Amino acid sequence: MTKLFSEEGYGFITLEDGTDVYFHKNAVRDAVFEQMDGMEVSLNVEPGEKGLQATVVQPTPPEARYVDKRSVAA
């Protein structure tokens, strides 16, 4: 999930374990930075000067979010 500071051109992505990862708008691919608030994303992470930093951020495709939990009859 993303949280933006759009006027400054950066944001944070909260990982499932609660860790916040910094990203700059230049790392965004296949999306408009200003429209990413609250969006689920995929990202590449590297250590930065002040903690973790995302080097590539892109929307998670809808098909990647869907998990079919139905049991398959044999």
Structural overview:
With 74 residues, the protein is mainly beta. It has a single domain (2-61), classed as OB fold (Dihydrolipoamide Acetyltransferase, E2P). Helix content is 5%, strand content 42%. The protein has one helix at residues 62-65; strands at residues 2-5, 10-14, 20-24, 41-48, 51-59. The strands form two sheets. The chain has a three-stranded antiparallel sheet with strand order 1-2-3, with no helix packed on it. The N and C termini lie far apart (37 Å). The mean pLDDT is 82.
Beta-strand content bin: 35-45%
| Strand order, sheet with most strands | 1-2-3
From N to C, what is the helix and strand string? EEEEEH
List segments where confidence is low: pLDDT < 50 over at least 5 consecutive residues. Answer: none
CATH fold topology? OB fold (Dihydrolipoamide Acetyltransferase, E2P)
Can you give the mean pLDDT? 82
CATH architecture: Beta Barrel
Radius of gyration: 15 Å
The rough form would be described as globular
Number of domains: 1
Helix content: under 10%
The tally of strands reads: 5
How many angstroms does the end-to-end distance come to? 37 Å
Class from secondary-structure proportions:
mainly beta
Q: If helices are DSSP runs of H or I spanning 4 or more residues, what is the number of helices?
A: 1
Largest sheet: 3 strands, antiparallel
CATH homologous superfamily placement: Nucleic acid-binding proteins
